[in-house]
Amino acid sequence: MTFLQALFASPRRWFSVHGREQKIKDYIALSNQLIWKRQASFLAAAILAAFYFDPSSVVLCYAFVVFSEILDLRLGSVAANWDGRNRAVGRAILWRITINTLISATAISIFSVNMAIQQTSGGHFTPLFLLFSASVFAAMHNSQMIGILLLRLGIYGIAFLTIALLDVMRELPAFSSPIWLEFFTVIFVLYFLCDISIKFNQGYRERYQQLRRIEQEHARAKAALEIKTRFLATVSHELRTPLTSIIGSLELINGNRLGAVPDNLKPAITIAARNARRLADLVEDLLDMQKIEAGEMVFDLHPISVNTLAIEAAESIAGYASNFGIVVETDLCAQDALIAGDRKRLIQVMNNMLSNAIKFSEKGGTVTVQVETFGQRTRVSVHDHGQGIPDGARESVFGRFTQVDSSDIRKVGGTGLGLNISKLIVEQHGGLIDYTSELGVGSTFFVEFDRLIGDADTDDGGPYLSQVA
Ligand code: ADP
Predict the structure, then answer these.
(1) Does residue 401 or residue 377 have the better pLDDT?
(2) Taking Cα atoms as reference points, which of 345, 317, 348 lies closest to residue 330?
């Protein structure tokens, strides 16, 4: 509803809640927020008026204003709990807002007119300015409910005109008298107040529509993302089974278990097996990512020895490392530490750090898995002497589907998902993952966890703690 539409709208429309739920809530929220600011202004005005005018009439008028504020306060606490759904409650709130506005605007107007009546001479500067401030305050903060704003400004308008006409009626001055000048100035100020009210209302409506548009776009983007996620999950699931059987068959052929493989076929079968494994890795990464995002990845936490974790990880990657001509060494900690962790997932993190270290090292190099314990923390690091990572690449390293060097000349494969998944897993363990690196010298990726205090059993025992990401 625009300013003019609101002016001529039927009372039925005024009290219709449909489509105005958010505006009513905004109005109430702002009114609650400003309640103490209003009290401070009213009290200051009352003290000032009581000093210069008849104190008993000022106290009476102020009591009326305070009464209207108490009504507002009570309405504010009731309406703050309205969820916007129950229309009957919404209508009751609208009625109460209207009645409160009527009472409050009348109280403030009587307060100002009372002062003006007591002033026998002078330009009624104080009461007019008080009314002016109250009107600007309303224009600024009541623009959500245009009908309510009009009601308030209408009552203030009557008060403005009453004050302006007071001296005209008292003195019936000649048209050239400054009393008429003051009267016309009041009319001008009234026009100005209408103008800024319209501007504030337009501003609010624009912000409101913008917010609605953003909300709609957000809902659309969310729906599209959900469809994409479901599609990706379905495709990954459907690919997993045939891929497993393809890899299994290729391994059988490669191992000569289905008969001798002719030499001219061997390279092609090796390439097919390698690519099928890469595809399977990607599918596993995608499935893991979906699981973590959906909060479905279950972490079965047990006390784990960090030294054992490092040895197991180094042993399980040894075959892969020898393909690249890399040696994996371990540098364990004399004071072993226990952490609460999901063994399978932590091995996955270690494997990722190790396979990266191997991939990005030169043939004949060494990769070291080091365990350190300091105070309440324990750290497992993977050092390599490979190509290193340039400064400012942290987002690419830990980002999703991002790689530091994703150019065509890149020698090693990868999905750009491994470290992103590792980070999510480590964070679910309450730990941190990070790296230091120097270009051309090498990199150190490390994970850090809180140590378990006490002599809990290692993960040969029963479940220690389960949690779902
Ligand atoms: P990818 O599957 O590509 O290895 P990751 O998420 O595991 O994906 O790693 C992201 C990127 O971080 C890698 O593509 C590489 O550019 C960089 N990176 C990770 N580890 C190392 C390392 N040890 N040395 C150099 N670069 C690394």
Answers:
(1) 377
(2) 317
Q: Provide CB contacts within 8 A for 1, sequence distance 6+.
A: 9, 13, 146, 147
Q: Which of 419, 435, 439 to mutate to test ligand 1, by most ligand atoms within 8 A of the CB atom?
A: 419
Last residue of a domain, one of 143, 172, 201: 172
pLDDT at 50 over 50: yes
> In the listed set 137, 172, 207, which residue is the last one of a domain according to the structure?
172
Mind listing the pLDDT tens digit for each residue in 14-44?
667 777 888 888 888 888 889 899 999 999 9
Return the H-helix or E-strand segment holding 224: helix 178-254
Pairwise CA distance, residues 450 & 469, whole Å: 18
Full domain range(s) for residue 120: 2-172
Residue 155 lies in a domain: yes
Which residues form ligand 1's pocket by a CB distance below 6 Å?
352, 356-357, 360, 384, 386-387, 389, 397, 403-405, 414-420, 443
Q: Which atom of ligand 1 is nearest to the CA of 402?
A: 10
